[in-house]
Amino acid sequence: MTDKYAVMGNPIAHNKSPRIHTMFAGQTGQDIEYSAILVERDGFPDAVAGFVSDGGKGLNITVPFKEAAWELAASHSPRAERAGAVNTLLLAADGKHFGDNTDGAGLVRDLKHNHRCEIAGRRLLLVGAGGAARGVLEPLLAEHPALLVIANRTASRAVELARHFCDLGRVEGCGLDDVDGHVFDLVINATAASLQGEVPALPGGIIGTDTWCYDMMYGNEPTAFMHWAGQLGAAVTADGLGMLVEQAAESFHLWRKVRPDTAPVIRALRMS
């Protein structure tokens, strides 16, 4: 019997998850059906309940429902508990769903496995203090960077976020201007500015000749952040397509107990 999975969000039309999971299923011989479901902004709990009653086994959750999914889950993985957001639900017929957040694991695996970027002992700058940043902090700190600085347009949000994670490593929060004069080994853009073709108002001095710059957003062309970093002489620039595929692989493993090979899927998406 074919097991049902889906991604829920709003908007959802251009979501790549159905294609990714269909490729994973073909590669691993799993009998699944994966769809994209547009959910009204006030209709998330009902949409999940309807999917469960229709035999659904698992869900991916995208904006704007990650916090609502956290509330809906009866139990959470430690990383989801910390993040306060869920992007993966393992569904139960009795409504006691399990919530996980695979975003940070996907980011770390893309950096280390696909790009061969070391995190341990490095100076990291995480730009942004919203849900995307919060979701990746625990996995990043688990890699033991020498320092992780969160910089945000509203400094108080970055400071508060740093305080929430300070027991996991050396993490500080500040405003965007406050990083001037400091060069970082790895700069991660966790804002959505690139979706509007914009770049956070960062001082150019943070980029050195050995700096890696990673944008969690992605597109058919290099993002605005990648262009900005490249013009300042960054050693490497990368977008978040690999993170998207790697976090999906984490979800797939949670659901199916088999880990797909992500490399051919990333290549296929790059070519399309």
SSE inventory with pairings:
Layout: E1 3-9, H1 17-28, E2 32-38, H2 44-53, E3 56-61, H3 66-72, E4 75-76, H4 78-83, E5 88-90, E6 98-100, H5 103-114, E7 123-127, H6 131-141, E8 147-152, H7 155-165, E9 171-175, E10 184-189, E11 207-215, H8 224-231, E12 236-238, H9 241-256, H10 263-271
Parallel strand pairs: 1-2, 1-3, 4-6, 7-8, 7-10, 8-9, 10-11, 11-12
Antiparallel strand pairs: 3-5, 5-6
Descriptive report:
- There is one protein chain.
- By secondary structure, the chain is an alpha/beta fold.
- The chain folds into two domains: 3-100 and 243-271, Rossmann fold; 104-239, Rossmann fold (3-Layer(aba) Sandwich), CATH 3.40.50.
- It contains ten helices and twelve strands.
- It has helices spanning 17-28, 44-53, 66-72, 78-83, 103-114, 131-141, 155-165, 224-231, 241-256, 263-271, and strands at 3-9, 32-38, 56-61, 75-76, 88-90, 98-100, 123-127, 147-152, 171-175, 184-189, 207-215, 236-238.
- The strands form two sheets. It has a six-stranded mixed beta sheet with strand order 2-1-3-5-6-4, sandwiched between helices.
- Helix 6 links the parallel strand 7 (123-127) and strand 8 (147-152).
- Helix 5 (103-114) crosses helix 9.
- The chain is globular and about 60 Å long.
- It starts with a strand and ends with a helix.
- 46% of the residues are buried.
- The model has no long low-confidence stretch (mean pLDDT 96).
